[in-house]
Amino acid sequence: MKEELKSSQRGILHKVPRDRMTREMIYLYTVLFLLSLSPLMCEAQSGPDLVGKMQGIWSILGGPPQYWMGTNVCNLTDYVGVTCDSTKSYPVTLSLTNLNGIVLKGIIPDSIGSLTNLTQLVIGTNPISGTLPNAICNLTQLTFLNVGTMKLTGSIPSCLGSLTQLTNIYLDHNQLTGSIPSIFGNMINLVNVNMGSNNLSGSIPPSFGNATALNTLLLNGNFLSGSIPDVFYNLTSLISLDLSYNQLTGSIPTSIASLTKATNLYLGSNQLNGSIPDVFYNFNSLQFLDLSSNRLSGPIPVSIGNLTRIYSIRLQYNQLSGAIPDVLYNLSFITFFDVTVNQLNGSIPPSVFGLTTINNLWLGSNRLSGVIPDTFSKLTSLTNLDLNSNQFSGPIPSSLGSLTQIQSINMATNRLTGTIPDVLYNLISLQNLHLGSNQLTGTISPSIGRLSNLNQLRLYTNQLSGTIPASISNLTRLNTLYLGNNPLSGNIPDVFYNLSLLQNLDFSAAQLSGPIPVSFGSLFRLSYARLQVNQLNGTIPDIFYNLTLVSFFDLSSNQFSGSIPPSIRSLTQVANLYLGGNKLTGTIPDFFANLTVLNNLDLSNNQLTGSIPPSIGSCTQMQILNLQSNLLSGSIPQSLYGLASLMSLTLTRNQLSGGISPSINNLTLLTYLDFSRNQLSGPIPSSVGDLRALTSLNFGRNQLLNGTIPVSICNLIHLNVLNLEVNVLTGSFPSCIGNITQLVQLWMGQNQLSGSLPSSIGSLTALTVVNFQYNQLTGTIPTSFVNLTKIVTLSLLGNQLNGSIPAPFFSLPSLATVDLSSNLLSGAVTGRNPNLPSMQTLNLNNNYFTSLGYFNVSSACNLQNNLFLCYPTLNVSTLCLTNYQPCTVKPNLDPSQVLAAAASSLSNAIVYISGAFSNLTINYTGYRNNITLTSLSTMNGFSLTSVNSASPVIYINQVQSFSLISMSLMSITAPSIISVAGGLSDLFVNNTQFSNNVASSASAIDISNTSPYAVRVISSRFSNNTGSAGVISLKGTLFSMDSSSNTYANNTGSNNGGVIYASGGSLTFTLDTFSNNVATNNGGSVVRIQTSSIRGGRADQGGCLYVSGITMLSFTNVSGCSSIGHGGSIYSDVGVTNIQGGSMSLNSAQGNGGVIYSNGNTVKITSAIIMNNIANSGGVLYINGGNAILSSSTFTNNNASTQGGTIYNSAGSAIITNSQFNSSSSDILFSSGSLIQSGNSFTLSGTSGTTETLNGASILYNERFVQASSQPVIRTTQGGAIVRDSWLKNLGNIQTTSQEGTSTMIAANLTVG
């Protein structure tokens, strides 16, 4: 406790020596005696001027008129409080304090300065007002001035410095202002100075350091600022220093170390900083140390252990750190130790438990830790123990049970575990037990009923279980009972009849069940009641008639049913009433006229019906009204708009109808307004713009609010949330929205808003949510959106927005959910910085985006129905819904972008072509991965029509696998349609049409590939195409070509190959149709034609086929082929031509070989029907070197204009077996090479010609000849021939054989018919 000088000490009268007083009293009695004997004698009189001055002073001071009336100012009975000099001539002391009940209420007059002989002026503790007059400075003899504890105003006269005789000055407890005059430094005789409890400002004059005689300096309770002057070196006599309750800053000066005689040092409640100087080693007299409520930091100095006379140490409310030093053993007188609200750590030092005189030990609100030592038994004088808000762990020490004088234990907000020790229940002096916010377990013992003096019991927020013991009914002095937030069970005991002093009750979140006990209604002093978040049930009992002092009543979040009881109307002092979150039914009672001080009313989340009662408008102090989530109907009562104190109004989730009144502008203090999810209709009144304190406005999901959004809404500059979604609002969104700079959430979805998004939205940098989904917005997304650095959610789906997304938008750091689906947005989507957190949801479906950068999506992704060039690169691609083929070329897009994306994304990419094209060029150069080109059947295939290109339409280089599927390429003029330069291993064509194309190379596919490759063509049609190589040119290293079920018709090869030009490899044709194709076919390939039809080809060489290598025709019909040169159907160059089955007819060559011209290769014909073919030589076959093998075939009506109507063997070799030859003109066979024949039948029905003319080595056996002409059947002109075992019949001449020139014929066993 602070030691202050009492007013009686300040007003000490001048003392007179005892012997002098005795003599004066004898003299006085003698004079009085003489006066009584002589009627002629009269009372002594003072001078009239002095009397007048004194009476004037008394009057101005406000003294009562019955005093200071006489003419003798030294008359103590009349002039009370006056002491004169020894001669009774003039006053030397005025002591007007505590004058037998006399109270002075005037002012200090200037005339008091005329009493120049005054040495003491004591008028303090009177309610005198006014200022301290400068005239007081005339009292140069003053040694003692006390004007404290009055009502003085104004400043301290600086002239007081002239009163150099002053030893004591008391100006405290006034209303003085201004600064302390520095002139006080001249008053070197000052001993006691008290200017405390004023309104003084400025700094402490350093001149106080000159007052070396100072014992007391009290400047507390002002507004002094600046640092404490470092002037205490000379003030070694200072005993009491009080600078507390100012605004002083800086550190504690080191010169404080000189105050070794001090008993009181008060520097608390300032703004001092720095550390506490470690200077207390020689402070042997210090009793009271107060440095509290500053900003001091660092450790507690060790030297406090030397304060052996200390009673009180107050260091609370600083920023001290480190451990409490273990140096307190010698503090044998200390009763008060307070270090609360610092940053001290470590454990409680052992020396604390040596403070046997301690009454109050305050260590709360630090960072102390460890187990609380079980050594409290030594602190037998302890009455108050505060360890709250630390980090203590372990059990509550049982030694606390030894503290028989303890009145308060506060260990709240630690980490204490275990049970509450039973020994605590023996502390019958205990008034406050605070163990809340720990981890205590076990039950609340019935023994708690022993603590009969308890005033406060706080056990909340632990893990206490079990029921509330009925023994709490013994705690009849309880004022506060907090047991909430524990896992208790059972009912609330019906014990409140005995707890008549209870004011504060908290049973919240305690898992209690059952009804509210009837005895609850007897708590007539109850002010604060919290029963929320339990499982209390039944009806709310009608027992509250006596609870007239309740100000806070919370029954929310229980299971109460039934109606609101009528006795609630008796809670006339209730300011906070919470009944929400129950199952209450019925209407809201119309008794609110009684609850006039109600501030907060919560009836939300019940099943209340009916309308909102108009009487609610009587609650004029209402600040928060929450009626949400009920079944309320009707309109909002007009009286509600008169609650001018409302700060929060929540009516959401009801069935309210009608409009919003323009009178809403009366609610000017509203910060939160929610009318959402009702059935309100009509326009939003423009007067809502007058609610300028609003931070949240929600009219959303009424579905019926219409009209435009009033521009006045932009006046709500403090809004954080604006929600008007799911209504029928029309018009454009106000561009002035940029005025609401604190907006965090903007919900405008599902209205009928039109126009564009205001760019001013981008200036709202606090936005986290923007939702305009399902409106009719047009225009682009403003580029200013990239400034929304805090945005988390953007939803613009279901509008008509176009253009691209501003490039850096997706790299906004907080972005988590974006839905831009179902718009007209297009262009490239720039990806998200991979160093940023992943997005949760990305919906870009149903737009026209062409490419997508990198995204990491963790929850949901929809990219359906776009124009993406290629499959997006996503870490979570499996989450992304797509119904499009990944790499897709579409009209009006650059195909090179598609291919680049395909090449960079997948090792086996599929590039899709979709749409109807008027012009398309695809260049595959440089893409070394496998690429397949196909089209989307759902998009009617890939169609190229009327294209005129200076470069190949589709150029492929270094692509391993290439497919053409379901395509249409028509009326294209280009160097080539599809050009393959190199790197190909497989080409696949399926269901594709090439028609009416003109190319300078092949009119469909031109391949020049050095590595082996294979070609497959299935179910396609090639017609009316013109190129240097007809339809397909296969150059390079062809491995094989397989053609099946195709049609090749009316194609023209201006150079080589009306249909196919192949420079090698194996060609197989199955079920194909060739008709009216024109060109020369060069090359050496293996050609296999199976079950196909070839008709109407025409070429310079090889009317239908010009092959080099092996040619195989199986069951294929070849007809109408013609050549200007050789090979009406086939020109076979260096290889094997194999014809098996099928037919060859109506083929012609202006040169040689009406069907086949074999140039040095081998021809095999088996089981074929060959007829009506014609050539210059060799109507069917012209063998120019090489070999021919013919078997089991039929040759009919084939003709040559010169020789070899059917076969002309020129310097080759031929083997003919089991075949039939029928001809009506010319000869059938001419051979100048080697020939072997067997089992054949020859019929020459014309009247001229020879069946066979042999000019080389020939062997004929088992043959049959029928000839109608007169020429020999067999003629030899050169070489030799053997003819045997044959049948010959010459119908026109008896000669059957003829040996001419140098030839030799050996005939044997011939039968001539």
Report on this model:
The protein has 1313 residues and is mostly beta strands. The chain is built from four helices and 116 strands. The strands form twelve sheets. It has a 35-stranded mixed beta sheet, with no helix packed on it. The chain has a 19-stranded parallel beta sheet that branches. Strand 1 and strand 2 (91-95) form a beta hairpin. The model is unreliable at 1-43, 934-941 and 1082-1086 (pLDDT under 50). It comes from Planoprotostelium fungivorum.
Instruction: Bin the strand percentage.
Output: 25-35%
Helical content stands at under 10%
- Helix/strand-derived category reads mainly beta
Q: What distance separates the N and C termini? A: 162 Å
Radius of gyration: 60 Å
The low-confidence runs, each spanning 5 or more residues with pLDDT under 50, are 1-43, 934-941, 1082-1086
Please report the total strand number as a whole number.
116
Largest sheet: 35 strands, mixed
Overall average residue pLDDT: 87
Helix count, DSSP H or I runs of 4 or more residues: 4
Shape: elongated
Q: What labels describe this entry?
A:
mainly beta; kinase activity; transferase; 4 helices; Putative LRR receptor-like serine/threonine-protein kinase; disordered N terminus; single chain; Leu-rich_rpt_typical-subtyp; leucine-rich repeat
Task: Please render the helix and strand layout as text.
Elements: H1 7-10, H2 18-37, H3 48-61, E1 82-84, E2 91-95, E3 120-122, E4 144-146, E5 168-170, E6 192-194, E7 201-202, E8 216-218, E9 223-227, E10 240-242, E11 247-249, E12 264-266, E13 273-275, E14 288-290, E15 295-298, E16 312-314, E17 319-323, E18 336-338, E19 343-346, E20 360-362, E21 367-371, E22 384-386, E23 391-394, E24 408-410, E25 415-416, E26 432-434, E27 456-458, E28 480-482, E29 504-506, E30 513-514, E31 528-530, E32 535-539, E33 552-554, E34 559-562, E35 576-578, E36 583-584, E37 600-602, E38 624-626, E39 633-634, E40 648-650, E41 655-658, E42 672-674, E43 679-683, E44 696-698, E45 704-708, E46 721-723, E47 728-732, E48 745-747, E49 752-756, E50 769-771, E51 776-778, E52 793-795, E53 802-803, E54 817-819, E55 824-829, E56 839-843, E57 848-852, E58 857-862, E59 880-881, E60 887-889, H4 895-905, E61 908-913, E62 915-917, E63 922-923, E64 930-935, E65 942-948, E66 954-957, E67 961-965, E68 967-974, E69 978-982, E70 986-990, E71 993-995, E72 998-999, E73 1005-1018, E74 1021-1023, E75 1026-1027, E76 1032-1044, ...
Parallel strand pairs: 2-3, 3-4, 4-5, 5-6, 6-8, 7-9, 8-10, 9-11, 10-12, 12-14, 13-15, 14-16, 15-17, 16-18, 17-19, 18-20, 19-21, 20-22, 21-23, 22-24, 23-25, 24-26, 26-27, 27-28, 28-29, 29-31, 30-32, 31-33, 32-34, 33-35, 34-36, 35-37, 37-38, 38-40, 39-41, 40-42, 41-43, 42-44, 43-45, 44-46, ...
Antiparallel strand pairs: 1-2
Signal peptide: 1-44
Protein name: Putative LRR receptor-like serine/threonine-protein kinase
GO cellular component, one term: membrane
